[in-house]
């Protein structure tokens, strides 16, 4: 019997946690990957080849699928790439698509998440938009080197506040939405329980680790130059800059109780996160 769930983005922060939770709860699913591995199969997980930019990969991946968890690959900023996939999913009679969007996407016309939302709304599939704030785990992935090696957070967010959220909480919401009824045609704003500046985050890290971490607050030009030197493509840098701009202008400070209502407990705090991920940053 074909698994009825397709999880896209299983190598990313949220997708990896969603896949892990589904396996722990013995829920069969397909994991979309761009390169099939010869590693031993994992319980309840079936890897299938899927590349959003290659329509020839769609049909087999979508076979038997009723619900999709869709994440925009960071390297794909042009929402037009998603149109053929959404059309194919609709033709394959997918019933429900759960899209990992962005807090405030409904009013942020310049972010690709909003443009993808609008394309999903044009299909005949039911939808759920998960609109989380900035992931805490972006600090230990995208920004790991600058924090670990340079002891600084280097983002152009000014003194704007962000209601940081732990991806472990997002994953718990996603699994509920994918496996329960009653979430169709809804949007959930998912945040942590407090909104912090990046300076305050650096202070929490300093306190927890005993290692001075600063917030650099670079100009946009310096931020772009930093990531260009690292070899990141211009489109990806522009998306990152746009996301930090939303924080700078105060669009990321919203705190909601959607997450607590959905999972029945308070969100994981930034204090708990920095303790849990201490070893990831190299502080044993």
UniProtKB/TrEMBL annotation:
This is SDR family oxidoreductase. Gene3D superfamilies: NAD(P)-binding Rossmann-like Domain, UDP-galactose 4-epimerase, domain 1. It comes from the Bacteria. Residues 3-246 form the NmrA-like domain. It comes from Paenibacillus thalictri. PANTHER family: PRESTALK A DIFFERENTIATION PROTEIN A, PTHR43162. Pfam families: NmrA.
